[in-house]
Amino acid sequence: MSRRIQLFCCRVEKKPRDTVLILVLCFARIHPPEFFKNKYAVDEAHYVTEISSVLASKKPAVLLTLRGVNTDSGNVSKEASFEGISQFNVNNTILHPEIAECRVIKTDMELEVLRYTNKISSEAHKEVMKAVKVGMKEYELESLFQHYCYTRGGMRHTSYTCICGSGENSSVLHYGHAGAPNDKTIEDGDLCLFDMGGEYYCYGSDITCTFPANGKFTADQRAVYEAVLKASRAVMGAVKPGVAWPDLHRLADRVHLEELTRIGILKGNVDDMVKVHLGAIFMPHGLGHLLGIDVHDVGGYPEGVERIEEPGLRSLRTARRLQQGMVLTIEPGIYFIEHLLEQALHDPAQACFIDNDVLRRFRGLGGVRIEDDIAVTATGMELLTCVPRTVEEIEAFMAEGQSGAKSFDSLSSQKQ
Fold first, then answer.
1. DSSP conformation letters of 176-197
2. Smallest Cα–Cα separation from 210: which of 179, 185, 241, 232?
3. Which tens digit of pLDDT belongs to each residue from 284-323?
4. Which end of the chain is more exposed for a tag (fewer CB within 10 A), N or C?
């Protein structure tokens, strides 16, 4: 069955600026229900205009509609409504928690799609690392990431607005919004913190790479980066079913405090630092979040799972125990955020642990975040993200890119 649509654009041709009459004929094909039945492997398919009569023929005792709050974002799902729904007994409270729980545990097919989003997004991050040059705008690298994901992976959308912070912008957790649209010029000596993920058939990815714009870490940048990497690897080593997510956050926090003490920014007993929540000054966000159809996916706080009202921990997007089939991000970070540092320096309980002379050296560094996507397995975890992570890997990879190795961008331009 097909339907012909005629579109007219008419302007009288009297003046040079006017155009001639245009007639456009478009053919919009309407597929039969059988097409959708086969495409989506369902038992029945009907046109939307028939929804009321088809449902009435089933004589349902109750219609379940999907309405509920995403405990992460606060967004409310919009329940179905159609002409004639008032004739049915409708319940809009039962379905949402059940659907949310189904989304928390991924099927094998869902995991395959998430592996794909991570593969393409990881390769796109690597292209950005090869292409970055001092003097570029942050948004140029955002554009390259999106171009690669779409051209090489068919990923038309990103999972969220790209965060491309360089220099002090790397300490802004959600930089890249409309008020700060990735528009700074990248300078020599800047750290780049690029948090970007492509989306495929609604399934997201969420990856952060931090690297030096000029391809070489300074001693201070290296020290902070390796502290975060150590926390990341410690958490990955502890992931397995049954482990409480807040405990993994606490583990990352402790590693950060130990490493900041080793660097010299902090001094004193780490256990005492934990008691005054000093870690939240340097990592004010939670360790990570559930990932799936939303980048911050549903199911973080089902009934019976309570939030922890402590600095740092109150920002956790879930407090659940891990289960096989969950997909989450692991994203520890250390940031030098001016107002939080000032807050700590004016709090005697925290200031006593800070060596202000050493801290002063780091205050313009910005921040470091390392974010990977993982799937919980029966005995541990599967790392879905694949990008250079150690200092040595990053510097070698960027040196290769700067030595004239063919990049995706240059190859694309040669084809044209």
1. TSTTS-S-PBP-TT-EEEEEE-
2. 232
3. 999 999 999 999 999 999 999 999 999 999 999 999 999 9
4. C
Instruction: Spell out the residues 6+ positions from residue 184 whose beta carbon is closer than 8 angstroms to its own.
Output: 137, 138, 166, 167, 169
DSSP3 helix / strand / coil % (the chain, rounded to 5): 40, 15, 45
Q: What is the pLDDT of residue 365?
A: 97
Sort 355 into a burial class: Cβ within 10 Å, 0-12 / 13-18 / 19+: middle
Q: Sheet containing 207-212: which strands, arranged edge to edge?
A: 163-166, 191-196, 207-212
From the number of C-beta atoms within 10 Å of its C-beta (0-12, 13-18, 19+), residue 73 rates as middle
Residue 415 has a CB neighbour count (10 Å cut-off) of 5
Q: What is the pLDDT of residues 192-218, one digit of tens each?
A: 999 999 999 999 999 999 999 999 999
Q: Which of 70, 89, 90 is nearest to 80 (CA)?
A: 90
H/E stretch holding 166 = strand 163-166
pLDDT digits (tens, 9 = 90+) for 137-196: 999 999 999 999 999 999 999 999 999 999 999 999 999 999 999 999 999 999 999 999
